[in-house]
Amino acid sequence: MSNLLLTAAQMRALEQAAIDSGRVTGLELMERAGVGAVDAIFAEWPEMAAAPGRAVVLCGPGNNGGDGFVVARVLAGKGWDVEVFLYGDAERLPPDARVNYERWCELGKVLPLGDAPDAIERFPDLTIDAVFGSGLSRPLEASLFRTLSCFSQQFVVSLDAPSGCDLDSGRVLGEDGQAFHPALVIAFGHRKVGHACGDLERASKVVVVDLQLSREIAGRAGFFAEREIVHAVQVRALSPIFSKRNDGHKYDHGHALILTGGMGRTGAARLAARAALRIGAGLVTCAAPGAAMMECAAQLTAVMLRRYDNAEALAAMLEDDRINALCLGPGMGVSARVSALLDVALASGRQVVLDADALTVLAGRDDPFSLLHSKCVLTPHGGEFARLFPDIAARLKAPAMSGPAYSKVDATRDAAARAGCTVLFKGPDTVIADPNGKAAVNSAAYDRAAPWLATAGSGDVLAGIITGLLSRGVPPYHAASSAAWLHLEAAFAFGPGLIAEDLPEALPAVLRRLASDQAAFEAVTTSRPST
Ligand SMILES: NC(=O)C1=CN([C@@H]2O[C@H](COP(=O)(O)OP(=O)(O)OC[C@H]3O[C@@H](n4cnc5c(N)ncnc54)[C@H](O)[C@@H]3O)[C@@H](O)[C@H]2O)[C@@H](O)CC1
Ligand SMILES: [K+]
């Protein structure tokens, strides 16, 4: 499956291109969507395929409602007892939805949606939410939300979107943005941006029904800026870290420098250093102030240790041009001294990861972005992001009153453009963007939820993985997006009970799996005849 994340407008453009090419009609696409939805439901709950039950289908005034009428017809054809309710006026349905409404009317009744709660007394086994999909443009009426909420139970399936949720952002439209929670969301054609970020608590799973639009996708290279980080892509993006030549020297594999905080505050940087080493940096050095040297020396073995006491000492250290990636922030504190170190690191033109306290220091400056350059990576969490980009954060936080709503992808992209470097905006939906508008989402949601990753020090490890990848020659955007994925994979490899120290140690198992997929990937690409 492709890892594109589409906006609603992009999805519409694809559908329209397919229709304009004469390859398919809108009605056929709607049939594919409805038939595919029933297949997906039965794949999810095979017991439903074996024993037809009762279904309630809630249809809306647009093509999402049209999909609902198809689902109703297909279920009835399989022996289900189906009740259909419509929100709005049948006379005003768009043409394809209208055709499917008429087809359903040959099989059964359509009642007004306001009557739908009565159907609960007949104990439906399955409820289909086909009220709104990608065409949602304003908040749900309160009465409609109440009706939908009556059906919040185990087997509620939303077609394309949980009605009320904007597919460009994953946000619920409205002042208080109350969410409707289906058990399953069936995305048509592709996952949309809103399936990967925003209010990710809203469903337990998203599956995709293929509408066979790959030809239209292929004809639009560069049209899609948003991607979801998936396993198959990492195999390619991380190829530099699998290319250690047998005769290679450790310096050929990069030298990462991680600055620690003072005495009693070096743990965060040591975690980052361990992660940078585990991900494959040839050498990793922790640089510590004099007072913290003993503390670090007692803890570090493979990671080297150097002393720095001020910005001048750092500048002297950076005369060694084998040091090719720096990490500043974890445990460093917020002070004028850290600010001076930041200046030296940025002026050196090296690849620099700025995390934690370094971001707070940066945000305190009159012109936070003047020294940043394209080799920097910023890794803010929500609070740090709001300090650095207060206007963007405020826009993202304001209630979304109309679709398409401002998304976390939009916000991160705007931040990266302003900062002039890659930004990784953390969260259960981590978004990575570069200054040219490329963006990726790593969502730790649905079947990739790893709540145990929210543990002290986990962010320091992420900063270390990015730094290690940078030192190995992975470009900033790919280093940040790959690190987000690896970090989550490491959490899965370990499982619950994880503490930050476990994350670097879990990386080799993740890399082993990637390496074997890498070999398979290379075997496929080299055996394929060139075109
Ligand atoms: N040919 C196509 O375009 C296909 C479309 N498909 C389905 O079509 C959906 C998109 O269809 P539409 O663009 O018609 O959009 P929707 O079906 O999501 O709804 C749009 C309609 O709802 C109204 N509306 C929006 N927000 C409202 C609110 N809060 N309260 C009351 N009315 C509101 C709009 O004025 C418009 O009439 C997709 O999500 C997908 O389910 C699929 O059938 C695949 C093929
Ligand atoms: K829906």
Tell me, what is the CATH class of the largest domain? Alpha Beta
What hetero molecules are in the model? ligand NAX, potassium ion
Structural class label: alpha/beta
* CATH T-level topology of the largest domain: UDP-N-acetylmuramoyl-L-alanine:D-glutamate ligase
**Percent helix among the residues?**
40-55%
Second rung of CATH, namely the architecture of the largest domain: 3-Layer(aba) Sandwich
Strand content: 15-25%
Count of beta strands:
19
Main beta sheet strand tally, sense and closure? 10 strands, mixed
Distance between the termini: 22 Å
Overall geometry = elongated
Question: What is the tally of helical segments?
Answer: 21
Radius of gyration: 26 Å
**Can you tell me the residue ranges where pLDDT is under 50 for at least 5 consecutive residues?**
none
Q: Name the average pLDDT.
A: 92
The H-level CATH homologous superfamily of the largest domain, spelled out, is: Ribokinase
Give the total of domains: 2
Strand order of the largest sheet: 10-19-18-17-16-15-14-11-12-13
